[in-house]
Design a protein that fits this description.
three-stranded antiparallel β-sheet; about 210 residues; alpha/beta; about 25% strand
Length: about 210
């Protein structure tokens, strides 16, 4: 895609930051943002004015870095207007609640994790979770599992329960292979993590590519 549109909640730092990062990254690679439309969650129920402007700009792909209630209305209203673009989503989406998509329409979502993550650690975790709980785990369960195991690994590495030493051991951690992929802290608080890019089929995420940190 060389022409993209964005529709985002300007009142939400999450949505606003993702929209701006996408704009910078897409244009840096030679793409063009042909529509950069905003709304505020406390006032928006009808997105058709923004969607009409997006349709007039003739983008090839639409980014919706928003929360589920808004995303679902945006997709339904776009479909009712005959606006059937490939759509990009973020980890705020709730795939099981998405409305039916138009024929030939493709959705790609970056997420924290998905049960089909292609590693032995994920398979072991999913099998154990199913055996205990009788259902599929969600990303919060997988990320909590990794967080606890990273803490245990840091305690082992530090050979101490002293908080400052444990914290430093976490900050020094490189290429930890967890249930949610590769995790590197590289000295800071915010880890670099593997990111699965998934399509949505029948309300489920199906991973099409995993982007690992360098």
């Amino acid at each position: 895609a060389r022409r993209a549109a964005v529709l985002f909640d300007v009142s939400q730092p999450y949505s606003r930051d993702l929209a701006e990062r996408f704009r910078r990254a897409f244009t840096a690679r030679g793409g063009r943002i042909v529509a950069f439309e905003t709304y505020t969650a406390d006032r928006a129920a009808d997105f058709r004015p923004q969607l009409r402007r997006i349709r007039s700009a003739r983008p090839e792909v639409l980014l919706l870095p928003n929360f589920p209630d808004a995303v679902n209305r945006q997709l339904s209203q776009a479909e009712s207007m005959g606006l059937r673009l490939d759509v990009l989503g973020s980890d705020s989406w709730d795939p099981p609640s998405l409305p039916p998509l138009g024929r030939g329409q493709r959705v790609l979502v970056t997420s924290q994790w998905a049960p089909g993550y292609p590693t032995p650690a994920t398979r072991r975790f999913v099998e154990a979770y199913r055996a205990i709980h009788g259902r599929e785990p969600r990303s919060a369960a997988a990320m909590t599992y990794d967080a606890v195991r990273i803490l245990l690994a840091a305690i082992t590495l530090a050979q101490s329960l002293e908080p400052a030493r444990v914290r430093q051991a976490i900050a020094d951690m490189r290429n930890y292979e967890g249930t949610t992929g590769r995790i590197t802290f590289a000295g800071g608080n915010d880890p670099q993590r593997s990111v699965p890019v998934s399509t949505v089929r029948d309300g489920r995420l199906e991973i099409v590519r995993v982007i690992d940190p360098p």
